[in-house]
Design a protein that fits this description.
The protein has 151 residues and is of the alpha+beta class. The protein contains four helices and seven strands; from the N terminus they run ββαααβββββα.
């Protein structure tokens, strides 16, 4: 939900939030189609790769690297779209996702983890990470987080 600068009056969802909800509705409708599990998985991966290809340059490069690291580090995770962004699910439940900076006009892209991720570390732990660049060191951190998330 968003508010305006004029005293915080609620005005509804932003255009970006409405677009994400429409994306999600289309994803649910598409997933309900009658196909074999293998066909659905192949189509879901094609959809993720197509969404990544549509991203602006910096986001696209990071999303491509994140996709490669996640799929190599945790082959049990299945790529799928989630609110119009690349996500990776275990048994149909999203474990982690990439959100491009351009999606919500943010300063940085985000690698996020849902409550399905096994990243618990005491009473508080990070569930999202800002990404401005995916270096070899960042790839190592992503791989370790993803492996831990499904472990």
């Amino acid at each position: 939900m968003s508010s305006t600068d004029n005293g915080g009056t609620y005005e509804g969802f932003t255009a970006e939030e409405r677009a994400a909800m429409k994306d999600h509705a289309q994803e649910v409708k598409k997933a309900a189609r009658r196909m074999s599990r293998a066909d659905k998985a192949a189509e879901a991966e094609r959809d993720v790769l197509a969404k990544i290809a549509e991203m602006q340059d910096a986001d696209r490069v990071m999303a491509e690297r994140v996709h490669a690291v996640v799929t190599a580090s945790a082959p049990a995770l299945a790529p799928k779209l989630w609110y119009g962004m690349p996500a990776y699910a275990l048994d149909g439940k999203v474990v982690c996702f990439f959100q491009s900076a351009g999606k919500f006009k943010a300063r940085y892209a985000t690698l996020g983890f849902s409550d399905q991720a096994r990243l618990d570390d005491g009473p508080m732990w990070p569930a999202a990470f800002a990404l401005t660049e995916v270096t070899p060191e960042v790839e190592e951190r992503i791989a370790a987080l993803v492996k831990r998330a499904v472990g």
